[in-house]
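pinned: reference chain
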Amino acid sequence: MTETLTRLRYQYWPDHWVGEILSKRWTETAVPVMLLALVVFASGRLVPNFYTATMLADTLRQAGEIGFIVLGMALVMIVGGIDLSVGSMFALTNFCALMFMHILKWPVPAAVAGTLVCGALLGAINGILIGYLRLRAFLTTLITLIIFRSVYEILSLQYSTAIAGSVPESEVWDFLGNGTFLGLPAVAWACALAAIGGHVMLTRLRMGWHIMAIGGSRRSAYNSGIAVRRTVAICYVASGVLTAAGGCFFASRLATAGADIGVGMEVLVLTAAVLGGISLGGGRGSVTKALVGTLVVLLITNGLTSMSVSGGLTRMVLAGILIAAAVIDVRWLKNRHRIISKVYVSPTYQALAPAPSCSVESGGPWALNNRLREVELIGLGRIEAPEDVILDHDNNLYAGSRHGDVIRFFAPDYQRMEVFAHIGGQPLGMAFDRQDNLNVCIGGMGLYRITPQREVQRVTDETNRSWSSINDDSRLRLADDLDIADDGRIFFSEATVRYEMHEWAVDGLEARGNGRIVCYDPRDGSTRTVLRGLKFPNGICVASDGQSILFAETWGCCIKRYWFDGPKKGAVEMVIDNLPGYPDNINLASDGNYWLALVGMRAPAYDLAMRMPGFRRRMAKRVPVDEWLFPNINTGCVLKFSERGEVIETLWDLGGENHPMITSMREHQGYLYLGGISNNRIGRFKLDQADPNFSQYGQRWGTL
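pinned: its structure tokens
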């Protein structure tokens, strides 16, 4: 009963969603959005008439004015700086706008342009000091805060009476402050346009990429040729311009130059940016986060004001929120990868039947022997990680290399070798088509084709995305092995949709069924997934009927059959259900049967651990990854089996001296060629009573 409950709990409770959700960047925006929804709900309950059109319009009007300043602050923070002078800068640009309109009687376009220029000049002061002279941003902007505030107080004391006594008669100016368009304040529309422009700049333009790079690592950005000083200075100038835009709208709405304008605004703006998810460390942030943080802070401030909370207490609340948000930001940024790594690995329950005995005394088809001990070695020390091997009609031998190359060994002695093609990723399974193109599965890249002229072509690197997947499973992470149907369709396995090439063993620890089989159809260029939920599907071989494929599930220790055509189309059937090891590639034998590689042998301790997902979860959280219990990849074995699942013979290398980890084998003209992803050689084994003229794809395509 306990085991049944454990199986049901880990089968139906989606533990793996936690790690997948936390690993998504959008979760950093989702948290402020949920906080915004909570604040809106609370404001509706606590603030009278909160949902009325007038109240919402006033809120959006204030949000637009503050939003300009938050956007500028966000830009400066993303590039790795900070601007404490925005409150004083806001007050000074507000004064400039009032001075141009009320005293100098400039037309609205000239007054707005002049105010923006003043904002740019104020921002340039910070930009030159921080960007070019490389002064500390915190100390520099703290000093300019004092200087700008002092200048504002001197000017406002001299001109505030004249400003209050002279009101310009301009419909355009009034529209900027109090006008609406389609029911929304003009400032909200202007802020939205600025936000869209900022989003495009940060995500689509080279300038935005440079800003992100500088915030992430200033030294690395400098070494890569980015103009760091100029970019930092431009960000401060842009912050000044955006602050001036907010000052223009504020001036047109209230027409005042009071002594308290902009006081404490740096705390409000900084809190909005950090609460929205703009990192204090730089290199992370977005326009959406800045706007969400603006709304949250503004609603909290207005809610406290409506409850008659004093301004000092309101600033204390904002300061407390800022401290809490800063602590969360710093701790999450520092520990994010460690936290995700602890919850991402989500083992499930898997019970395998006891492995069949392989002892010599058993006398069965699995009885140990040492037939692979004396195999001939090809390319010893000259090739690394030949996961699969294949031969062409000229008897030349091809194998992948971990350096991203497909290596060709020339017949008849295979001593001379060359780089046949460089692809860039780890070549895995290979197959020739009717046109003598070499189709290759590339780990982390997808399915590629090498023409006889040695031209590398991408066939496909994505498939249809499943509606239930949190991870983007349209991208091919680990295309593994393939075979080609008579009509040209390519069926290939993708071992896992959760882990990358270098993490393949972690998928075995999880045993969740993260793999799938994908079909590429050259007739219309489409790629679609035909089977999901497989436990590290690996070897693929088209069966003799031409309507089905045999495929291996490595962590399931079984061989299955899938019909892609015919009366049984879509059906899946078990062929061998309890292998003593972990199956890998499958290829055709000359007598009509099939060769299968066992990449490693099962061990009782690991089989027991598969029935204890809680133990594996604790291990993944508490033990260093190099000390985890992983599948036993040690002894090489090749076996021959029939389509009915009968094991005909086995070939072992007991000491693992020649091929300790066999991942593939290919019969060709009386020999069996052996590959292994952990080996630095290719093996050739003489087969007794094998067809000396047999070539797998020569027979398939009728070119023998």
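why pinned: The CA atoms of residues 60 and 386 lie 63 Å apart. Residues 311-344 form the longest helix (34 residues).
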